[in-house]
Amino acid sequence: MTALLQVRDLRMHFPLGGIGALLSQLRGEPERVVRAVDSVSFDVRQGETLALVGESGCGKSTVARCLLRLLNPSGGSMRFGDIEIAKLDAKAVQHLRRDIQMVFQDPTASLNPRLRVSSMVEEPLMLHTDLGPAERKQRALEVLEEVGLGADLAERYPHELSGGQRQRANIARAVATNPRFVVLDEPTSALDVSLRSRAILLLEALREKHGMSYLFISHDLATVKYLASRVAVMYLGVIVETGATHEIFAKPLHPYTRALMAAVPVPDPDAKRDSFVLSGEIPSPIERHTGCRLRGRCPLAKPICAEPVPLREVAPGRQVACHMI
Amino acid sequence: MTIAAPATQTKPAGRSLVWRRIRRNPLSFGALCVIVLIILAAIFAPIVAPYDPDMPDAMAAFESVSWKHPMGTDMYGRDQLSRIIFAARVDLSVAFAATALAVAIGAIFGAMVGYAGGWIDNVAMRLVDAVMAFPAFVLAMGITAALGNSTTNVALAISITQVPAYLRLIRGEMLRVREMEYADAARTVGNPPWRIVFIHLLPNCLPPLIVQATLAMGFALLTMAALSFIGLGIKPPQAEWGVMTAEGAAQIVTGEWWLFLFPGLAIMITVLAFNLVGDGLRDFLDPRMRGIR
């Protein structure tokens, strides 16, 4: 199956500002940057959900913002069909929005407080389709109905909705133009558990009905297990392991993935658990890392871990970046 | 369904909350009533005013306060109360026109430079600094002296002195809202930059602008009266509060106190009312003030 989205060697480096950066520049040192995303590659296939998991600050959201071109990546390529997203100009990026949409993490902050729900959902239709005002309204109401917001809620302002309803409104806005690809940036982390499961079911139903592909960014592994067909695990700006969801959950290979899985609480006191624990703190993303980024914290680390460690195919469809595997 | 029922009742509850908060600030509410009264008086001046403001009456010159002339008459025997009522038309409309023009220019350009950022923002802010370095009144004097003091030029001069304040205010608000997640959401949907700025972000910057504009109405009125007082504003035959105060000031030594007192009071009460309403609006629109007191 061909990939809908091919990301290769994506890099996003933020220059450090301030006096310190200026001084080191005067001393002729190389420019210091925060390596938020450092050479990330992955594919998203037609109709599948790829989960991007990792702890806070590992660069997941930065990848999403690069894909939407809310940030201009420092390097690498992002091919969407025959379009190279990284090279589009501002005008072409606007047109791309018809096919690539995003659902944000905070359902409240991502809704304009002065727009009614219906006009918010109509907006992408107005920008990307030839529908007249009445047809737009009709279509907006259909989409809202589809996500479970009735016509009585359509004329409300965001502050008149509950948290779950707001996230549904966000989802409606994202799917209004029938995009082929939707980035979900932790769409459920602001919702409580009961609303979370309903939102997940809704997202899954929408994907099946419209044949969309999702990039699902999350640190909630239970949700990932349900929603994603494949998983990419990120640590400190790089992908350390990818594979089919059930394989990664059944047998995590990379030490970081193992630690991540071991940290998930299991509601069974007698369950046999992998008690794999990392020591220490996450190193600074400002340092230039040559070898494995986990080696300072990894109980399996050997001298060879200081050597560069690319993603290697260890089984069909399974890639791991670790010298010890 | 049980959830929907209480939700539909939020509207009336919200309205009574607004009313409660207005009543908590009786001073500003009173000031608002005063402004409405003055505006109504100005609109219906021909009906409200007891005399023709420009009709001289040689027999009634320099008459003091009486039932016939509640604010006395001037040296030509014109009724002072009628002149003050008609003067409100000029004063309010010039102050309003000047403020509206300044708000429009300041909001549009402030929003654009604030959203653009970078060197555009830097250049604009240095220009604003340059204009603000002049004392506002001296600048307004200079402009009317250079362009000639027609009513339009007075409005223009006042508005030029006020543009920088709005520009800076909206630019600052823009720096805040452009980082909000709904700004990213607007970009993600595919909005062109002008729609992001004017449809999505600028409406979210308006509350402080409304407060600033209300306070500035008072200041515009004061500037205009002061310009007229020194002869660089509205020209004398026209009934205008500053002009009338200037004419009355000449009569202080001869004892016709009503000639400068009443136009001066008109200026003071109107400016004070606008300031009180502005203060009240600031408290009213500031979400941090909600639920306090």
Written account of the structure:
The complex is a heterodimer of chains A (about 325) and B (about 290). In chain A, a hairpin with a 2-residue loop joins strand 9 and strand 10. In chain A, the strands form 2 sheets. Chain A has an 8-stranded mixed beta sheet, with helices on both faces. In chain A, strands 2-1-4-5 form a 4-stranded antiparallel beta sheet, with helices on one face. Chain A has 2 domains: about 240 residues, Rossmann fold, CATH 3.40.50.300; about 70 residues, no CATH class. Chain A is α/β, with parallel strands linked by helices. With about 290 residues, chain B is mainly α. Chain B contains 13 helices and no strands. Chain B is elongated, with a radius of gyration of 23 Å. The relative contact order of chain B is 0.13. The N terminus of chain B is likely disordered. The interface between A and B is medium-sized, with 29 and 19 residues.
Task: Give the class of chain B from helix and strand content and strand pairing.
Answer: mainly alpha
Radius of gyration of chain A (CA) equals 21 Å
Major sheet of chain A: order of its strands? Answer: 6-7-8-3-9-10-12-11
Q: Specify the overall morphology of chain A.
A: globular
Q: What value does the average pLDDT of chain A take?
A: 85
